[in-house]
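lol ok so funny story. i was supposed to be doing the assay writeup but got distracted and ended up predicting the structure for this chain instead. priorities right. anyway since i did it might as well share w the group, maybe its usefull for someone
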Amino acid sequence: MKFSLREDLERFGRMAFVRAGDCTKIIEQFHRLARKAAEHPDHVLLGKVYAWVFVPRSIWPVDVKGLCEHLLERVEMGKRLDEKTRLLCSLLPEAPPEEVCEPIIQYEHAVKAGNYESLINAQFKFDLMEAELRRNEELKADWERIKQEFEVDKYRNRQGVIRRRFVQERNFRPSDWGFAWESEEERFRNVFDAFCHKWNLYGMEGRKGPNNKLQAPEKLQTSSSKLQRSDDVWGDKPLLLKLSVNLTPFGTLIEVPKYWSFDPKRDLKWGAVTELHKMREVKRQGPKLSPGVTARRAEAAEARRLWVEATKAGMKGDARNQWVMERLGWDARTDESRLRRILKAEG
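and the output, tada:
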């Protein structure tokens, strides 16, 4: 496959989470080392991993950016990959084709903006709850107490958002979740997590201070709510959890916030959710299909075994084909192309 620096940079620029997984330097380094890489004994593995740079970050099975950096460092030093790295690269599947990636990229852009409306019918539940939170005096009082105890601006990101710590699948916890109370940041993280749990939030959004360049919360619309905002809205905005559907490298996660009165028949657009899940070329499954698949795989394995046996016995060409098909129990009139297809597909 031929790669163009300009085209690759433009292609990567269409990704949703460019800042989170910025691969610009990797792309430039890959093209700078193109000739050297082409002569490297592991150039096939390098090209395979590089292709993953243009796959939506939501479905990266490993840190592709870090892996590419490691491979390019080895290429620049003129050294072979060690066996463990080769094992990792060999286990990484081929990058999904563009027709699979493109709709996922578009969906990631919607997720980045906090828009799940294409999959959700009951947006009004979120809008009503969000409006109630913004008027809730107890929530405001809790947040003011936190601001009195902590310098919260230190924990805002570039958009002025403070996020709670992530919750992982199957009730696993992040490495920094264990209780610690020594540093100021450790104390703030524990307090802020409890605050977010109490009010069903994933964070708080607002200004860093009067001298920063961040926009006011009213202009940082991460919510799709169409409710009118009054001019006297307080300075920080609670970021309410949404009913959401997200792709991961291993599956499709549906998150139903604990405050949400969930109606599975009406709240989600299941047709759209199914299409999202199938974007990664999910093969048909089911009790009727499984026995047929198992039988074909068993037949292909037996065909390969017989093929090897015939080859060792010195058979070639039509004689070998006929010998293998006869022992597979196929009709004598079977076209030899059938044998070639299963050997190629299953081999």
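The chain has 14 helices and five strands. Residues 159 and 214 are 7 Å apart (CA to CA).
back to the writeup now i swear
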